[in-house]
Fold this protein.
Amino acid sequence: MIELLLGTLYGLLVGIVPSAGATTGLVVLYSFMYIFPNEYSAIIFIMATVAASTTADTFASVLLGIPGANSAAATIQDGYPLAKRGKAELALSAAITSSTINGLIWGLIVFLALENLSFIYNYIGSIQLWFITLFAFVCVVLVLGKKWYLGVAGIILGVIFAVVGTDPITNASRLTFGWQYLESGFQLMPLIAGVFAIPQIIDGLLGWSAPVQHSQKSYKLLGIYSVWKHLGLSLRGGAIGAIIGFLPGLGGAVSDWISYGHSVNTTKKPKIPFGKGNIRGVIGPEGSNNAQKATSMITTVLFGIPGAPFAAIIMGLLMYLNIELGDPSLFYDSAIFNSMLFGFLGGTILVAIIMFVLLKPICKITKIPMKYFFPALLALLIWASVQYTGGWEDYVIFLFFSIAGYVIHVLKISKPALLLTFILFERFELLSVQLLTRYIL
């Protein structure tokens, strides 16, 4: 039980830190795996960390307008405008409720049925994955709105940033300008920090961002009621997250943006425009968060194919404990699956309780002027962005995206379109090459 509590508290801390997320939090654990008395305790701690951080990353997105993780960026679109109107509690309460419901549903489904799901991947191949990725690109277009040209500009920039690296066909360097560091392409964390976080911090320091209003009214119960009122949307968001999580390599950001696009396009004549504080824009993507994390473990456990970046880190951590995911012998030890179930569901429930208890005091963070926590925020963003090599090149890339991000912010180019395109393009290109090679060339 102590592992569950500690894992939940650690995940809560990781989730609150802007731009960190489950992946960064899990990387840190490599230095501490020796402290666990056995592998089952470690699994409980790890799964509780994943569940808790996935729910808690909403705090930074709603209160600061900075993604708690790349998968929480969609929540900013309506969560942060709600906070600026004095309704941070409403957004957070709805987000916690939607995340928790879907985390429990899909956590139960996945971890109870995990030992009997190996047959599914006989029916999924490159063609199916290509169409799913193409569908995600279509969703980018659907959320562009009236100012479509700003969305198209975001897509173009996303493609330009994504093609930097190595050509998958010729294996030649592409847009690296002779810099070997760029042959692996741009890393995601500095792009997220530069495009989403730095502009928000600068505007806060200069006093250009709209002031956050504070209401004496409690919106905690109203947030829960909002999810109940739009329960179908929350569950559909969870289903989208579950499907995307089930498909290797797409990741949480993709599922959240598809869920957000679904929220926008299934709402007829909204009273409050999306992007201005529509609660449905919070409920949909937050329903996808924990569901995606749960189903990402299917490919990871059954076949040793990481369903998402955080799952790859889990594979490495468990290898440290002599547990090799994807090995058939794994299925002779039911305690491993029971530990995953207990850790994920326990972490999901426990973090929700803690977050609801601390909701009002944490919301008071919006009363603190940016200048007081700017140094700590900047330090955390730099730390999260220089984990790739730790060398001077990481700092240069962080600076590049900070400058580019602020220019993008000033020009009002669509940040969601840029981010989702950047995430999807590599996968789409590789699948396209596979299909061309196999069926056409």
Summary: Strands lie at 165-166, 173-174. Residues 2-440 form one domain. The chain has one domain: 2-440.
